[in-house]
Amino acid sequence: MSDKIWKKSHYTTTYKVRLYMKHAEYLKLTNDIYNDLIKKYFDILNERRELLELSTFNCLTQLETLTVIPKTGARKGEVPELYFEQNAPLYLRRAAINQAIGLIKVHIASEERAKERNLKIPKAPKIFKASTIFYKGMYRNFEGSAIELKLYNGEEWKWYKSKLSNFSIPKDAQIQSPTIVIYKDYILAHIPVKEPIEDITPVRFRMQEENIRVCSVMFTNTDKFAVCVILDEKGNFVKSKFISGGKEYAERTGYLLRKIKKNNTKYKNYTANTRPWKKIYEIKKYYAHKVSREITNFCIENKVRVLAYADYESQKKEEEKFYKRETGEFSPIGLRERVIEYLTYKTYKEGILITKVRPNYILRRCYKCREPIRRKIKGRKETVKYKCKNGHEGDYYFNGAMNVAIMCLKKFGKEIEGKENKNGDEAKY
Ligand SMILES: [Zn+2]
Description:
Blueprint: E1 9-20, H1 24-47, H2 56-67, H3 90-116, E2 132-133, E3 139-140, E4 146-152, E5 157-164, E6 174-175, E7 179-182, E8 187-197, H4 203-206, E9 213-219, E10 224-232, E11 237-244, H5 246-266, H6 274-301, E12 306-310, H7 314-323, H8 336-349, E13 353-357, E14 373-378, E15 383-388, E16 393-395, H9 396-411
Parallel strand pairs: 9-12, 12-13
Antiparallel strand pairs: 1-5, 1-8, 2-7, 3-4, 4-5, 6-8, 7-8, 9-10, 10-11, 14-15, 15-16
The structure holds zinc ion.
């Protein structure tokens, strides 16, 4: 079965790249035209909601029939019912219509929610501030380092070349319509890139391949965000990695959280805290990307094909009791879910699969003999050691990571050789 060929799959990642544009004002003009179009079509859809019962494609065609003078066909030159003058290329209009369809659906949903709860019905937005999506026909010569966009310069629509920083189109990838986002001081191109994933063999088949290696990840609430251990298929230790930065992360978020608290007592309005909250979420994202990237690279470098982590919710509570320390959303262990989310797509793109294991004893038993262990803290609780009654000792979280990796191998029927088990206490995993 393991030589079965699995269907190829794709994964889309959105790259955010700086765009250097000589004529930023033309982009702004184009963006204004785009939002005017969204507004016009949004209003039409709001009036004629029955159009939304059509498929998105048919709805788009209908809206065009209702508003655009046909250039060909039997009705050539005829002014349609809801005609309005518009100065936009076909593909800009289509992008705007699609966006208007999406936005009206969101608006209708919020109306329905309000009705259900007997709340005031929200008003339809009057101004739109969407970023322009450039469909094919609105961009060309997209080479990675540069792109040409069709923009309105106040008189006519023309092609303008812009440079892109630090972007190269990945091999075999397919570029999709970029969205150009205008910020106060800079411009970003959000570029969706569709990349093929060669190997999506399910974990259970992959584990039957020869010389398979697994990597386990143990999340902690210390300076080490994560401890990773790689084992070969016989359970032999290959390599480990400690990913630090947890202390720095806790300090940075802690500082901002204290600031927010102070602001809350000082000011009565919420706006004072908009910036610190935004910063906190940026920090969170930054560290989650950093940690997940390091774990992914560690797997790639060591030819790991299966990554395992423990489903162990009570660990958080245990940590809280043990350290008497915050385990909330902004603590190192609180970043766990976000790291797993990012890890899932980062590793998937590399053809590494993730599996969740459910050991009973992940931290509280020695991985060598499965006897209960005792914890010893050193150096302001950042380094935690363990010792079991058979004299095995070492890093407490390394022991946990070993347990997760062994559990993963066992889950898929691997025989683990040469592991001590003095009292024959069979697999309490
Ligand atoms: Zn032991």
